[in-house]
Amino acid sequence: MINILLENVSLYYPSNTKNISLRKKIINSTFGKNIKNNHIEALSNINLKLNEGIYGLYGENGSGKTSLLKILAKIYEPTIGNVNINGTVASLINIHFGFNEELTGLENIELKLVLSEVHYKDIKSLSKEIADDCDLEEYLQLPLRTYSSGMRFRLAFFIAKHLNSDILLMDEWIGTGDEKLRDIVDNIINEKISKSKITIIASHNLERLKKICTKIFYLKNGRISNTK
Amino acid sequence: MKCFFNYRYWSYFSLINIKIKYRDSIIGPFWNVISGTILILALSFGYSSFLNSADLKNFIYYIALGIFTWIFISSCLNEATSVLEFKKNIVLEKNINIKFFTLELIFSNFIIYLHSFIVIFILLIISDTHLSIYFLLSLLGLIIISLNVIFFINIIMILSPVFRDIKKIVENLMIIFFFSTPIIWSEEIMSSNLKFFLNFNPFYHLISIFRNPLLNKINEQYFFHLSISLLITFCTIVISYYIDKKYEKIVKLYL
Question: Which of A151, B38, B206, B255 has most Cβ atoms within 10 angstroms of its Cβ?
């Protein structure tokens, strides 16, 4: 069964600027001087139990939405607490991740598929499918550094479209300035959400979250302050 | 260990790395061979003033074995200081085992290193060295060197984002070790007192277990180097395991 369980999860970011030198650390340990480790509490005592559904994470900037998504994507391990996730996770936290400026569009498609752990036997056929789908034609033979931001988005988005998972994590609604593409993107996102068993969308747009989510968690200073 | 067997992925990334590095170059990784060869030729020009031609041929071969192996080791360790910083847009966006980058780094540098064997082979033919079957022991040496480099990379890669001065420390240490390891000079010129201190240099033993079989020097000294190298490997694995336990979970938070 696909589910997510977070028990007393806290995440601390190190913020000590005095302890970032190995030389100083060795000198201080030798002379018995102990520098206290400072940290910023990004998440504090989060308890969540999520079964199938569409969930929203609402909060202002710096409230801990992205940190929580990164815990759910298993990018960060919690400083305290337990995380138990049953199901495959795909994160659309940053759809441009892993791109290499020097490689061509086509090579970048392959690179992202390898990074997304697509079976090597399927990479060639899936690359071709994505290349046909994203409609970048001869631009796919050019290095990514020559692409406009719209073309990059198109490439990244159509790669993400082809990667399926049980759990879908999104940081803000994926938006595009291109009017022609906007409807396509919205339809594909809706399709992806309907295919995923659990979808979690972090946003500071409460109205949009209310429209699509079955439950919204309100985050403030790294804590869940309210649930609706 | 699971990461190690996922060889299709890290070898793919290693080849992509080489491709990017030498994209607009016709000779590709041979650039590294050329720079190493120029250094060897420049040194041999200097040594020619106090060595006769027979000794010079053998000495150039000796230097080549050391220099190319050193370039391989030092490139891996220097690149390890910034690998996570360069891969930040992957590490912070995807749940990926960072050991993957260790294997990617060593494999791409190893492929570049293999290109230098053409020069080493040519110099072997020119020199007076006659190889016996024991030259195969150099393969064992290469495996032990690679194992050590993997664990060295792991230690440096994990510590670099946590302690920001690691990059400078590694850069300086590599320069010190280059000059204090018998690579461009022979240990035979050292007094016995100084030779004793040489035993505390791990790279001396590691390079010797690869170089000595290719110089047909399989003697007591070789087995001493081999046992010390195995001890170094054990220590590196233990330190790497300790660093993993202490920092691997939190290293991403420092990026």
Answer: B206
> Residue B66 contacts by C-beta under 8 Å, 6 or more apart in sequence?
B181, B182, B183, B184, B207, B211
Which strand ranges, in their side-by-side order, compose the sheet holding A3-14?
Answer: A39-50, A3-14, A80-86
Tell if the CB–CB gap between B159 and A20 is shorter than 8 Å: no
Write out pLDDT tens, residues B14-40: 888 888 888 778 888 888 889 889 999
| A chain contacts of residue B254, beta-carbon cutoff 8 Å | 14
C-alpha distances (whole Å) from B229 to each of B40, B42, B106, B146, B204 are 26, 31, 19, 12, 9
Q: How many residues does chain A have?
A: 228
B contact set with A (CB within 8 A): 8-9, 12-13, 16, 19-20, 23, 89-96, 159, 162-166, 169, 249-250, 252-254
Return phi, psi of residue A27, to 5°. Answer: -60, -45
Give the model confidence (pLDDT) of A40-49 as tens digits.
889 999 999 9
pLDDT in tens, B65-93: 999 999 999 999 999 999 999 888 888 88
- Angstroms from B102 CA to nearest CA on chain A: 16
